[in-house]
Amino acid sequence: MDASLSKITEVPVSKKAISIKATLILVTAFNFMWAFSHTLLDVLNKHFQDVFHISHGQSAFIQTAYLGAYFLSAIPVGLLMKRFGYRNSIIIGLLLFATGCMGFVPAAMVGTFSAFLTAIFILASGLACLEIVCNLYATKLGDPKDATRRLTLAQAFGGMGGMCGPLVGGAVFFIPAGTVAGFYVEPATLTYVMLSILVLCVVGYMISIRLPEANHQDENNIEPRPEDTVYENVPLLKNKNVRKAMLSQFCYNGAHFGIGAFFINYVIEHWDGITPAKAAYFLSMAMFCYMSGRFLGIFVMKYIDPRKLQIFNSSVCVLACLFVMLGYQYISVVVLICMFLFKSTLYPTIFSMGVRGLGKKSQMAASLMVTMFVGGAILPLVMGYLSDITSISTAFIVPAICYALICWCAITQDLTGYKFSKA
Length: 423
Prior knowledge:
Helices cover about 75% and strands about 0% of the residues.
C-alpha cells in the first residue's frame, strides 16, 4: 500500500533509501519533461513569427498563454495536493499535458494562431500541476536542510531537457510542411503528437506503481523541528519572506521566459549570416550552460549560503543584461549565453528559501509562488512590444531590472531562525 514519508522511517534503512532514491529519479525525469517543453516553446516562438507573419510583441502571447496557465492553475493545484496527494496530482498533470499536446492536431486543422494558443494553454496547465507537485515533493524527500540541493539536483537534470528542446525544435520546426502517405504533415504538430504519446505511456506507468506519499494527514503526525515552523503562525501574505519570494519568482520567470522567447531573434540580429535553425542551436548551448550551473550549484551550495549565492548570481545577471543591451556583434551573444550559467540556481534558491520555516503551510506557499509564473506571461509581452518600438537590445532592460529586484529581495530577507551549516 502507499507509504507516507513518516511511515518510511519504520522500515529497514536499506529499503527506505531505495524507495526515496527511486522517487527522486522519477521527479528528476519530470523535470526533464517540462524543461524540454519550455525550451521547445522558445523555438516555436520564432517558428510562429515566420508562419503567421506576426511581430515580436504578438508572438509573446505564446508565453502569455503558457505562463498564464501556471498563474490560473497554481492555487487549484495546491488544493489538489491536499485532497489527493502527490501521486494522483502528478497523474492529473500528465493527462492535461498529453491533452494539450494532442490539441495541436485540431489547431493545425483550423490553422490560426489563437487555436495553437488554446492548445498551449491546456498543456501548460498540466505542466503547472507537475512542476508545483514535483518541486515541493523534492523538498520533502529527506532532511529539510538539504532541500535546496535536492531541488537543484532534480532541476539540473531538467536542464538536459532544456538543452534538448532547442536541438529538436531547431532540427524539425523549420522544415517545410509536406505530404506523407497522403497525409498533410506539419513538423511542429507531429512533434507534439509524439510527445503526447510518450506522456500517455508515462501515465500508464504511474498508474501501475505506488509512491511514498507525504499527504497532509501524515504530515500532521510528524514532530517538526523548531526551525521548520518558525513562521507557521504568520499569515502567508503577511510573511515578508513569502512576499519577497513571490516578487522574486515574478521577476525570475519574467526575465527567464522573456530572454528565452527572444533569444533566437537577438542572435539573428547580432550574429551575421546565421539562420533561425542554427540560432536555435545557440539556445541549446545556453541551456547547456544553464544545466552546468545547476550541477555546479549542487556542489557550491554545500559550502556557500544559498542566499549569498542568489545575491551574487543575480548581480552578475544584471551586469550581463546591461552588456547585452550594448548590442555588439558576436561578443554580446557570447555574454548572453554565459548569463545562463549564473541564472541557473536562482529558481531553486528562491523557492526553497520561500517555503523555509512554514511547516504545514509550505504547500500553499509553493502554490502562491508558482502563481508568480504570471511574470512570464506579462514581461515577455513588455519585452516584445519594447523590441517592436525600439530594438531587441533595448528590450533587455526588462530582465536587468528583474534581476536587480531579485538581488534586493535576497539582501533584505528576514533570517529569523535561519542558520546555514556547511556540509
